[in-house]
Amino acid sequence: MSALPFPRCGEDLDESKSARGTLIGNSKAALSLALTLVLALVLAGCSNGKEQTFQGWVEAELIFVGPDETGRIETLTVREGDLIEKGQLLFTLDADLQLADVAMQEASVKNTKLAYDRAVALIKTSSGTQKTLEDAEAALRTAQARLNSSQTRLARRKVSSPVSGSIQQIYFRGGELVPAGKPIVAVLPPGNLKLRFFVNEATLPKLKLGDPVTIICDGCDKGITARITFIARSSEFTPPVIYSMDERSKLVFMIEARTQQPERLRVGQPVSIALGEPP
Q1: Which domain holds residue 271?
Q2: Predicted pLDDT of residue 164
Q3: Which of the two residues, 169 and 53, has the higher pLDDT score?
Q4: Which pLDDT belongs to residue 236?
Q5: Which of 11, 63, 91, 244 would bridge 7 by S-S if both were Cys, CB 3.0 to 4.6 A apart?
Q6: 120, part of any domain
Q7: Can you say how many angstroms the Cα of residue 163 is from the centroid of all Cα atoms in its chain?
Q8: Hey, is 24 helix, strand or coil?
Q9: What is the arrangement of strands in the sheet containing 89-93, beginning at the earlier edge strand?
Q10: How high is the pLDDT of residue 27?
Q11: 74 vs 157: CA distance, rounded Å
Q12: Does one domain contain both 224 and 152?
């Protein structure tokens, strides 16, 4: 920096003071500008280095398995946390009423079969009528259909899993009476685990179905990824008719994503979601 000028011989003292004041003012302005530029660069570096994340959680689409008819649980062959295969027996219900109904329908089939055989024999000797034969045949078909229905009801007292997965919840235990349609166990197939999070209005246009996201959670291994499978068409918050800037900033839209690594997550687990693939 050049030295401040001193008044030369014959120079007016006021002019010398004015020159020094101008130089000092210019130096302060240059220093202030330099500090502003440095601060801007630092903030820009911090902003670029900070990854934007969204808070969410792990959610499950459970398969609820229960009886078609009211019954008492005789056996429960699974426990919570068990891994099961499709078709594996889950529980059985008492079948006394169904067994009695099957026996009754079997007797009905035998009786109608005898009537049908008699009608056939009579029609061959011209002693019977075609109408009698047709009625006997219809009665036999009806009795057989009722027997099939009764046997199906009996078979359904033993309930197997419709999917492969893990037992997440058991709602009734052995010996308890279960109403028709009430679930006894809840099964979670691996593919039914999903992530749910919310993004603001400004981020929404940047997302599309199939986009990758990175899952971050406490104690989780790095590199868990998922892909967006659902983007809500409506917001979760409805502001007044007039959309002020403050109200618009409160709008959030629900996003869902599914991962190919569901075994590394747990239902209800809080997670952070970063857009894009992991670095």
Answers
A1: 53-61+190-275
A2: 95
A3: 169
A4: 65
A5: 11
A6: yes
A7: 16
A8: helix
A9: 158-160, 89-93, 71-76, 177-178
A10: 52
A11: 10
A12: no
Span 59-111, pLDDT tens digits = 999 999 999 999 999 999 999 999 999 999 999 999 999 999 999 999 999 99
59: which 2 tokens? 């959610």
Global pTM exceeds 0.85: no
Residue 266 lies in a domain: yes
- The beta-strand segments (E) located in the chain are 53-60, 63-65, 71-76, 83-84, 89-93, 158-160, 165-170, 177-178, 185-188, 193-200, 212-216, 224-231, 252-259, 270-275
Q: DSSP letter at 82? A: -
CB atoms within 10 A of CB 255: 24
Q: What does the alpha-carbon distance between residue 154 and residue 149 come to, in Å, rounded to a whole number?
A: 9
- Which stretch of 14-18, 186-190, 226-230 has the lowest confidence by average pLDDT? 14-18
Comparing 249 with 181, which gets the higher pLDDT? 181
Three-state SS across 149-168?
A: HHHHHHHCCEEECCCCEEEE
More confident residue, 251 or 91: 91
CATH number at residue 198: 2.40.30.170
Residue in 204, 205, 203, 227 with CA at minimum distance from that of residue 215: 227
Q: How far apart are CA 47 and CA 40, in angstroms?
A: 10
**Tokens at residue 9, please?**
């011989």
In terms of domains, do 166 and 238 share one? no
Q: How many CB atoms lie within 10 A of CB 161?
A: 20
Q: What is the DSSP string of 159-203?
A: EE-SS-EEEEEE---TT-EE-TT--SEEEE-GGGEEEEEEEETTT
* Helical axes 130-155 vs 96-124, angle rounded to 10°: 160
